[in-house]
Amino acid sequence: MGVINKFKSNFSKFFTKLFKKQNARIGIYGPPNAGKTTLANRIIRDWTGDAMGSVSHVAHETRRARRREGVTIKADSSSITLDIIDTPGLATKIDFQEFMAQGMDEAESKRRAKEATEGVIESVKWLENLDGVILVMDATEDPFTQVNVTVIGNMEARQLPLLIVSNKVDLPDSSPSTIRDAFPQHPMVSISALEGKNVETLYEEIAKRFG
Amino acid sequence: MDLISEHRLSEMAPVEKVRFIIDEVMSGKILVLEKGLSPEEEASLIEMTMTLIEPDGFSGIEMESYPSEVDTSFFGKILKKNALKTRLTVIGPADQLKTLKKDRDMISALVSASK
C-alpha cells in the first residue's frame, strides 16, 4: 500500500506542477461585525506571522476585499495551502445615519456608506470566483439573517464546500447551538477569533473541508 | 403589498425578475413572492440594490427568505445544478419593512405605511 500511496502522491505532484494548479480560493463571508477580519487576522498571523487588516466595532470597517495568497495551514493529519479572501460584510441595506450614530460627521458617514455599498458589490462578485467559503456568524446574534441564507444558498447551488464558524463564543450570551440547529446540514466550528479559543479545531476542519 | 405568484415570476428572465422587484420596492411596495428567488438571483438583487442606494433617499431593501431546501426528488437529483427548492420570500423597502423574528419556518415582520 505504501508504494501505491507514494506513486499516487508523486503522480498528483507531477500533475500539479504540469498544470500549475492554483491554490483553493476560500472567501471569509458574513454579516458586518461578525468578526471576519478578526478571524482572517488570526489565521494569517498564526501561519505567516503577518496581519490582514484593521478591525473596529463600527460596522463595514472592511470596505475592500483583501486577498492573501499561499497560506499553508497544517493540521494533525494534513496540510493545505489556500488563498484567503477577507470580504466586506454583506448587507441588503446601508444607511449613512448609522455611521453618524457612531460619532462620525455627515460627510464622513456618507463617504463610508458609499464605500460600504461598493464593498458589498465586491463581496457578491467574489462569490463567483471561489472554491469554498468560511461563513462567520456572530454566536450572540440570530443566525437566520438574509445574508447567511443567501451565502449558504449560493454555496449549495454551486455545490462548493462551506464551513460555518460560530464566532464570539467568549461572550457570555453566545449560543453556538442555535447556529447548529439553524443549519444542521453544514459543518460548524465554535471559536473565539479574538481570543484564539478552539482555533486548532478550526484548522483541522479547514484542512478536512477544503483539502 | 403585492403577492406575486410563482407563475408570474417564472415567465421572467433572472435579470427581469431583479429589475421588476427593485422597481416595485423603490416605488414603496412590499412584495411577497410565492416561490422566492434562486440564491444567485438573491445575490444579484443585493448587488443591484447596492448600486441604487442614495444618501437621504433609497437606503436598501429588507429581504427575508426561508433557507432553501435540497430537492431530493428524482428530477432534482438528475438536474443537480437546480436541486434547490426556493421558498416564500418577502421583500420591501428597508425603511418600511422590518423583520422582528425569523426561524426555519416562520417570519414575523413589521410593516409601516409611512417612511
Strand content bin of chain A: 15-25%
Largest sheet of chain B: 4 strands, mixed
- Biggest sheet statistics of chain A: 6 strands, mixed
* Spatial sequence of strands, sheet with the most strands of chain A: 2-3-1-4-5-6
Q: How are the SSEs placed, and which strands pair?
A:
The complex is a heterodimer of chains A (211) and B (115).
Chain A: H1 2-19, E1 24-29, H2 36-48, E2 66-74, E3 79-86, H3 96-100, H4 106-126, E4 132-138, H5 146-158, E5 162-167, H6 176-182, E6 188-190, H7 199-210
Parallel strand pairs in A: 1-3, 1-4, 4-5, 5-6
Antiparallel strand pairs in A: 2-3
Chain B: E1 2-4, H1 6-10, H2 14-26, E2 31-33, H3 39-52, E3 61-65, E4 69-70, H4 74-78, E5 84-85, E6 89-93, E7 97-103, E8 106-111
Parallel strand pairs in B: 1-2
Antiparallel strand pairs in B: 2-6, 3-6, 4-5, 7-8
Helix pairs in contact in B: 2-3
Pick out its properties.
heterodimer, A: 211 residues, alpha/beta, Rossmann fold, 6 strands, globular, B: 115 residues, alpha+beta, Translation Initiation Factor IF3, 4-stranded mixed sheet, two-stranded antiparallel sheet
How does this structure look, described?
Chain A has seven helices and six strands. By secondary structure, chain A is α/β, with parallel strands linked by helices. Chain A has one domain: P-loop containing nucleotide triphosphate hydrolases (Rossmann fold). In chain A, strands 2-3-1-4-5-6 form a six-stranded mixed β-sheet, with helices on both faces. The mean pLDDT of chain A is 89. By secondary structure, chain B is α+β, with helices and mostly antiparallel strands. Chain A binds chain B through residues 90-96, 110, 113-114, 117-118, 120-121, 124-125, 127, 142, 144-146, 149-150, 152-154, 156-157, 159, 182-183, 185, and chain B through 38-40, 42-44, 46-47, 49-51, 53, 55, 59-68, 70, 80-81, 84, 94, 101-104.
